[in-house]
Amino acid sequence: MSNGMILLVEDNPDDEALTIRALKKNQVVNEVSVVRDGVEALNFLFCEGAYAQRKASDVPQVVLLDLKLPKLDGLGVLQRIRADARTKLLPVVILTSSIEDQDRIKSYGLGANSYVRKPVDFIEFVEAARQLGLYWLVLNEPPPRRV
């Protein structure tokens, strides 16, 4: 499915492995870049710190963002993404185990494109990954890239 890069922002190695495995099981062959905390996510997106040499034009097709992250939580990351003209329109899918209504309300309020609860069961998770891949990497028309 498609060839755009996916940025996975996930601090839990088990959830990271599960997400990548579920994507591969659904033939999502996109490159998956993984960062493990909110600060690293922003450094990646804005080509700062350890990612200063990264090409700014290499924008992810979609960001899969966990909410519970070290250093800066997912809501803080989302807020910074939406506040910057370079990433304002970047598709961001909240991928979290949180069942709190407040997290969902805050996520959408800050401009999340989608909110997906991580299923505990692997079969359900594979299906969720299939649907995410199909929608965000094949069906969705992203905003045009600036020239």
Gist?
Helices cover 39% and strands 14% of the residues. The protein is an alpha/beta fold and 147 residues long.
String of helices and strands: EHEHEHEHEH
Number of domains: 1
**Proportion of strand residues:** 5-15%
Q: Number of helical runs? A: 5
Please state the average pLDDT score. Answer: 87
The shape is globular
**If strands are numbered along the chain, what order do they take across the biggest sheet?**
2-1-3-4-5
User: Over the alpha carbons, how many angstroms does the gyration radius reach?
Assistant: 14 Å
User: At CATH's second level, what is the architecture?
Assistant: 3-Layer(aba) Sandwich
* Terminus-to-terminus distance: 25 Å
- Percentage of residues assigned to helices: 25-40%
Notable features of this structure?
five-stranded parallel beta sheet, 5 strands, alpha/beta, Rossmann fold, about 150 residues, globular
Question: How would you describe this structure to a colleague?
Answer:
By secondary structure, the chain is an alpha/beta fold. The protein has one domain: Response regulator (Rossmann fold), CATH 3.40.50. It has 5 helices and 5 strands, in the order E-H-E-H-E-H-E-H-E-H. The chain has helices spanning 13-25, 38-45, 74-83, 101-109, 122-139, and strands at 6-9, 32-35, 62-65, 92-96, 114-117. The chain has a 5-stranded parallel beta sheet, with helices on both faces. The chain starts with 5 loop residues before the first strand and ends in an 8-residue tail after the last helix. The model has no long low-confidence stretch (mean pLDDT 87).
